[in-house]
Specification:
Layout: H1 2-20, H2 30-54, H3 58-65, H4 77-108, H5 124-152, E1 161-168, E2 171-176, E3 187-190, E4 198-202, E5 207-212, E6 218-222, E7 227-231, E8 237-241, E9 247-253, E10 265-271, H6 273-285
Parallel strand pairs: 1-5, 4-10
Antiparallel strand pairs: 1-2, 2-3, 5-8, 6-7, 6-9, 9-10
Helix pairs in contact: 4-5
Length: 313
């Protein structure tokens, strides 16, 4: 009797599916099985995440919290870091939602019989939703990007230190504008392919960088400052920031600029005021006085075997 009643029930459900569509009538226990499967997948994901995090050192965990950014060393870093991290959070939230919907649809509406499901030509509310939501997301990101851009590009009337940075093929020149100080003259440091130049900056003092290029496009980038500025030939530009942490930081050209682009690296030494002044005096004592800017067609190849041209400035 029980077997006959079960067979009758299954036949009735199958008939109703064919009449009104598979999404209207579901077999008993379908949602229960889906829910159990989803819980198992969630448990596996959580276990793998916990296992991965257990192998991380405190420094690695700290970098994870910055989503890969290095430890900050300038006053421009907080705004840039917050924008970076929050953008990733928004992207992950949207990604998890989309991936979750995809997986749910795959599981909930997987094929169970040869019967064709009900066909839907369009769903106007749904189409309006997935058209407007991306514009809202882009609008919010655009708003916060403009706000952060305005903050990090803010300039003051009287910076504490001014450095004219020249990027040339294939190294850097740092001109310290110190003529109006006790030093009595501008001094400079210039790098070559064989010698990495060093940029000295005093900690906790506002520095203005005037950047330019005499040849091709370069890009002045110090990752720890969370700031990068392109150098366009014939279009000098400026920016300001305050180094907030003493130490030695890597700098590089972030724009492919020719054969020896990889040699366009430099070191940033953020030091105390006394060490900064001592470095300027050392440059003066070595005769590295004045400012060097290059000319329109310059190609600085000092350090290449058999080629001493291109040094005139």
């Amino acid at each position: 009797m029980t077997d006959a009643r079960s067979a009758t029930t299954n036949e009735r459900l199958e008939a109703e599916r064919e009449d009104v569509g598979l999404d209207k009538i579901t077999a008993p226990g379908r949602h229960g099985r889906t829910a159990r499967w989803s819980r198992r997948v969630g448990a596996v994901v959580l276990a793998l995440t916990a296992l991965a995090l257990a192998g991380c050192t405190p420094d690695q965990m700290d970098q994870w919290s910055r989503v890969g950014l290095p430890e900050a060393a300038s006053d421009r870093a907080p705004a840039m870091g917050n924008l970076w991290v929050n953008t990733w959070i928004a992207a992950m939230a949207i990604g998890v939602l989309v991936w979750g919907l995809i997986i749910w649809a795959i599981i909930a509406y997987r094929k169970r019989s040869d019967a064709a499901p009900r066909q839907t030509r369009y769903n106007l509310p749904l189409e309006i939703l997935y058209t407007t939501v991306p514009f809202l997301i882009i609008g919010v990101l655009f708003y916060w990007t403009i706000r952060v851009q305005n903050d990090v590009q803010e300039m003051s009337d009287n910076p504490d230190v001014t450095v004219d940075v020249v990027g040339q093929q294939w190294s850097w020149t740092f001109n310290y504008q110190t003529e109006d100080t006790e030093l009595g003259t501008d001094v400079h440091d210039i790098g070559t392919i064989e010698r990495v130049p060093r940029l000295y900056l005093p900690v906790n003092q506002k520095v203005r960088f005037n950047v330019s290029s005499p040849d091709v496009i370069h890009s002045f980038w110090v990752p720890a400052f969370y700031f990068k500025r392109d150098l366009l030939p014939g279009q000098p530009t400026s920016f300001e920031l305050t180094p907030t942490k003493e130490g030695v930081f890597a700098g590089k050209c972030a724009e492919l600029c020719g054969t020896y682009h990889s040699a366009m690296i430099f070191e940033v030494h953020v030091v105390s005021e006394a060490e900064y002044q001592a470095h300027l005096q050392d440059l003066k004592d070595r005769g590295q006085v004045g400012s060097l800017y290059g000319h329109a067609n310059q190609r600085t190849v000092t350090g290449l075997d058999g080629d001493g041209e291109g040094e005139g400035r």
